[in-house]
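Record minuted for everyone:
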Amino acid sequence: MSPSLSSESPRWYMYLNIDLLLHVGSYTIFHPFVAAMLPLCLRALAAPYQSTSFILTSVYAILVSSCHLLSSVNQRWAYGPRRKVKLSNEVAVVTGGASGLGRCLVEIYAMKGVSVAAIDIDVKEEGEREGVWWYRCDVGDPSMVQKTWSRINHDASAIAFHTSLAAELRSTPNIKTLLVTPGQLDTGMFSHIKLGRIRNFFGPVLEVRELAIKIVNTIDAGEGGTIALPAYARWIAWHQILPKAAQNWLKRCSGVDTAIGAPVEQVSSKTEVKNSQSESESESESD
């Protein structure tokens, strides 16, 4: 389970954010079917074709439908057709699988019956446990990564890895890539960061299980692409085209430059105090 950001129960308005509104809207007013029903309902009420309401709703329905169509075409051209996914023949290699999002993905795929190889520097005991193969590895060490990858290939017969990988490499178009660019997650890494009402509305904390389910559903569908959650993560890169002054103003308003720095200083100061106390205790004992 991911640690909670606060022991106190959040107020109801903390659950109301722009991502929730966009999610609800994608199934209602921004859905092509719902949009198409608007002019049809007006015609059922005998609204003339030349009426302003009928024209506006028709234009809106065309725009919404066109956006969905262009999105599907872009997905197909950019990442190709879906590949066939048979979970019994798949192997998931998850880095950072001991905690957070990685651990959530490991648990989901293990429950689905997929062969899982989990890599993390914090793995206490290597080997196979509950259908998951655990490997201790520091992904920042290239030589260690190479050795671990060789071990995974060596264990391929046990986890049905080599055959499916070789088949994929012979048919490059069937290899799908999925880029995940999340915002703030509800993990221990961000547990000290507190959001106000306005910042929480535009930049809500993303639940690890929500992101993990989105990743798993995309992979199971045989699709590639990019997953950027919450909504602001899709547009954050566009701030680079703004003037530097505007960029600095946005950073200052959002608090991204100070959100993590202050707690780090507090933690280090607490560590120094603790160390000094330990030294004092050891000196008193020696006396």
About this structure: The two ends are 46 Å apart (CA to CA). The longest strand covers residues 115-120. Residues 1-6, 165-170, 262-275 have pLDDT under 50 and may be disordered. Strands lie at 91-95, 115-120, 127-129, 132-136, 178-180, 225-227.
